[in-house]
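In response to reviewer comment 3 from the previous cycle, which asked for concrete evidence that the modeling workflow produces usable outputs, we include below a single protein chain processed end to end. The sequence was submitted unchanged, and the resulting structure tokens are shown without manual editing.
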Amino acid sequence: MIDKNTFPRDKVCGDAIGGRAVRVLSMLDPSFPEMLEKLEGVNKSAGWKLYAPNGKSVELHFTYPGHVARRQDFDNFLFRLVKDSGKIEIREGFQLKDVHAGGNFINITNDLGESYHSKLLIACDGAQSVVAKRLAKFRVDLSHYSGAVRAYYTNIKGIYDKEMIEIHLLKKYLPGYFWLFPLDENSANVGFGMLSSDIARRKINLKAAMEEIIYNSPALKDRFKESIRTSDISGFGLPLGGRDMEISGERFMLCGDAASLIDPLNGEGIGNAMLSGLLAGEQALKCFESDNFSVKMMKHYDDSVKHNLTAELKKKLTLQRLFNRSWLINGMVNAGLRFPLIKHFIGRHL
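The workflow returned the following structure tokens.
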């Protein structure tokens, strides 16, 4: 396992971990979710409170509970599981610069000219994936890409419930949303994200927009009046799923953000990344058992991802486009307030 950073390290993210991540941990080892629950700084999330553009809100509960945890803590937890297994050689601090496929091996090099070669490469190198660009010829499509910013705040008034995350949909910034993910009773990961094509078309400065929402929005300005920002406002890119894409080729597979598997509706990508990693691991076993790393053999990985994720992501992509209409969101929240079955449906499918 090769990583550009050394652990523990921070990663700019919303820090919300969906229920799928816990289910993948359970599939690997039933004891892993229990270990996660005991990890310091992990806050369980039972559901979310959705604020519509008209100011009304509805409380929704997750089918499978999630968590909020700083990525520095959660990612280091996963890293320790790998390291403590004693079965995997780890190289940290290797900044991937280039990758070449040829003959019987894949070759990777860093900016110092150091190199490794292997029969198979599973690439989890993120939204700016070198492997996706070089081997899968990925290019950024702004209509399937989001930009976001986040920062940490303390002394926020009236955090609804530390087991409930908050999503604020504001008419001015649709189809984007503002989030508030509690880490404890008075601090939270706070952020704002929008579709990149809208950011470019409307020339929106995400950092300025986030501060405007915090300090001018009727629903938030009083709550943040005495708040303290404890980190810089940092930005990150979100390659969204929902398209039919080739995410493998001869001797390589792409996982997570490198494979554009982020939920187009809510921006959550950790659980999808972990599931794709599990599927890639299963495919890798089959490849080595048969000594077959061909394009045709790797296609089974693409099929597994499509079966387990793509249909869901396509549905979310459709919903994302519908959510550009404030009247629709207002009507949905109003219906959820009046009819429990509709509220349950919204909670399950969003």
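The chain is about 35% helix and 25% strand. We consider this sufficient to address the reviewer's concern, and the full set will be provided in the supplementary archive.
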